[in-house]
Amino acid sequence: MKALGTSELKGYVRYISTQTSYSLADRTPELELVPLCLDQGVGIIPYFPLAGGILTGKYNGEQAVPSGSRADTDPSFNRFLLEHNIHLGRQVSEKAAEHGCSPSVLSLAWLLARPAVSTVIVGATRTEQLEHNLQSLDLKLTSDMMAELDQLSDSFRHREPFATYRLSE
C-alpha cells in the first residue's frame, strides 16, 4: 500500500500485480492482501497453487513419498507433510472425485475463481502435468462447489502462510 501511495503521490508507474503464496492450503492472503488488491485494482498472481503437490493427491500419508516428487527430490519439503496439510489434500481428492476431475484441476479452478486472482503460476515438471492442469480453465465451479471448498479449507486462512520459510532465508 505504501508503494501504491508513493506512486500516486510522485506520479510513478504503479504496481498492477503482486505475487504471493495462495492456495486452498494457504488462504492467509484473504485476510489483508485480497481486500487491498480489490480496493486498489491490483491483480494477484499466486505461486504454490498446489501447495508443492499436496493438493494433487500424491501425498496421502498412507503410501511412501512418490519417486521423483518434490518430497523425494528435496527432503526439506517433508516439513510441509503435516497431518493437517495431508488431511486437506485427502479432502480435496474426495471432492474432486465427486465432481469428476482431478484434485489439481479442482484446486486450480477454485483459485482462478477467487477475487483479484489474475493468473496462476504452476510449476509443472512434465508437459503432461501442464496439459492436465490446463483443464482447470474449463472447469466452471458452481457456488455450491466453491462453498464446499471454502468450508473445508477455512482453517487455512488463519494458519502460518505456506511460504513463510521464504521470508526467513
TrEMBL record:
Record keywords: Oxidoreductase
Organism: Paenibacillus tundrae
Ranges of residues in domain NADP-dependent oxidoreductase: 8-153
The keyword Membrane is assigned to this record: no
Name recorded for this polypeptide: Aryl-alcohol dehydrogenase-like predicted oxidoreductase
InterPro entries named among the record's database cross-references: AKR_Detox_Biosynth, NAD(P)_OxRdtase_dom_sf, NADP_OxRdtase_dom
Domain of life: Bacteria
